[in-house]
Design goal:
This protein is an alpha/beta fold. It is built from 18 helices and 14 strands. It has helices at 10-32, 64-71, 74-77, 90-98, 110-117, 158-166, 181-192, 211-216, 229-235, 245-248, 261-266, 268-285, 291-298, 308-315, 345-357, 367-374, 377-386, 412-416; strands at residues 52-57, 81-86, 104-108, 127-132, 138-143, 172-175, 202-205, 222-226, 239-244, 255-260, 318-320, 326-328, 399-400, 406-407. The strands form four sheets. A five-stranded mixed β-sheet has the order 2-1-3-10-4, sandwiched between helices.
């Protein structure tokens, strides 16, 4: 005998259906949001330990990865509520990072090394570099009166230096921070010309955005800084570019995203979230069609405060040196290409070799130990694996600079001692 099912009321059917559907949908949503490998009823969150992050930056074009990650919502995509705060000087950047007022920052590669070691007035505060922000794109600018007399060869500058020294009024050259990149490029440039930066000239420290105004009033004869201030000096008719730093060392390391070692140890997921956002920003930046928009964004008063057209030219490799020379340079500033972001140990060793050369450290410097303490490719590698990005990895190849000197990362002390112009403390 065929049994007849009693029909449910329309109201009951709809309520039951919705209840069952909600249960199934809720479970699917919850389970679908769980990371792979979830077992049982409890799992660890992948969210950043510290969601609110304040980043420091200086008014230089190479602050762009941090600014773009903020402006394009990439930090937010990875769970970081970001604030970007412009600082007045590199010393101010160091201090606010050290005291915790900011949690991550745009920084010269030499600064975390100096802070970790307590060099040149830096309070000893261990810092780490898990990310290189950019390569290339800095320049050495000389005062306009030297145009046509000195071009790219610093040897042509030496007679002017010697004459000024004889009259007791040594030429003055500005850098942005004593153990920073600009100081090392200026020192290397002068040294290659037979000029001792500590004995033959006056080396002074000036914040990047103040370089042009100080040259205008005659306080300096040259400076080394990042863009757009070299291009600005040309546009204002105040100075000219002697040479670009990529002509000293092609694809040299420049700025980094740095953190205190203490913050990184307590917030490993936060650091990785920052690196993932910076990766996306850097890929975007190295598409040349995006550079006009980049220039518009970073030109704002809250960031660089400079006309976008002054920023854009050199970002596209268009160099007007200001003394009649013009060049389309394929080695313009990069943010992602050519394994740009990997924190190579050898770069820390190169800076340490120059600190040794110029008497900042003595013969007991621990090249390998300090490089491994500051440069953190392990953090970089882990973050990139999590987003499926295959990078170029470690590179221990030798590097040859414009004066013909070759830096072998396995022999940094030998490199430090290989220069006729030096201030070596001891052998």
């Amino acid at each position: 005998m065929k049994m007849k099912h009693q029909p449910l009321s329309r109201k009951t059917s709809r309520r039951t259906f919705l209840s069952r559907a909600a249960t199934r949908t809720g479970a699917a949503v919850l389970l679908g949001g769980l990371p792979g490998g979830w077992v049982g009823s409890v799992f660890a969150s992948d969210a950043p330990e510290t969601a609110a992050m304040k980043f420091g930056m200086i008014a230089l074009t190479d602050c762009s990865p941090i600014v773009i990650a903020h402006e394009k919502g990439l930090f937010k995509k990875y769970g970081i509520e970001s604030v970007v705060a412009k600082q007045a000087s590199w010393a101010a950047v160091r201090d606010v990072l050290s005291n915790g007022d900011i949690q991550g920052t745009h920084m010269l590669i030499g600064m975390p090394i100096a802070s970790t070691m307590g060099l040149l007035g830096s309070p000893k505060k261990p810092m780490i570099i898990p990310w290189l922000l950019n390569r290339n794109g800095q320049s050495i600018t000389l005062k306009k009166s030297l145009a046509g007399k000195v071009e790219a060869d610093p040897k042509a500058l030496k007679p002017f230096v010697d004459k000024a020294k004889r009259f007791g009024e040594p030429l003055s050259f500005a850098v942005t921070f004593p153990p920073g990149t600009h100081a090392m490029w200026m020192r290397y440039y002068l040294g290659a010309g037979g000029i001792n930066p500590d004995k033959d000239v006056a080396l002074i420290t000036v914040p990047p955005a103040q370089m042009v105004s100080n040259m205008k009033i005659g306080k300096m004869d040259g400076f080394c800084v990042g863009e757009p201030w070299n291009a600005r000096s040309v546009a204002d008719g105040i100075g000219f570019t002697s040479l670009n730093t990529q002509d000293i060392w092609k694809d040299h390391p420049e700025k980094v995203c740095a953190f205190t070692a203490e913050f990184a140890e307590k917030n490993p997921k936060t650091i990785k979230a920052v690196l993932k956002a910076l990766h996306e920003a850097s890929v975007w930046l190295d598409k040349l069609e995006n550079r006009p928009e980049q220039a518009q964004i970073v030109s704002k008063a809250t960031y660089i405060n400079c006309p976008p057209e002054t920023i854009l030219g050199r970002l596209q490799g268009e160099y007007d040196f200001g003394d009649g020379r013009k060049k389309k340079d394929p080695n313009y500033m990069i943010f992602h290409d050519r394994n740009c972001n990997y924190p190579q140990y050898k770069y820390a060793k190169w800076f340490l070799s120059q600190y040794r050369r110029w008497g900042f450290v003595d013969s007991t410097v621990d090249y390998d130990g300090i490089a491994k303490k500051v440069m953190r490719p392990d953090i970089y590698d882990e973050a990139m694996k999590e987003i499926g990005y295959k990078h170029g990895g470690a590179n221990g190849d030798a590097e040859t600079l414009f004066d013909g000197a070759t830096f072998d990362p396995a022999k940094p002390e030998e490199f430090a001692k290989g220069f006729a112009v030096n201030n070596l403390k001891s052998s």
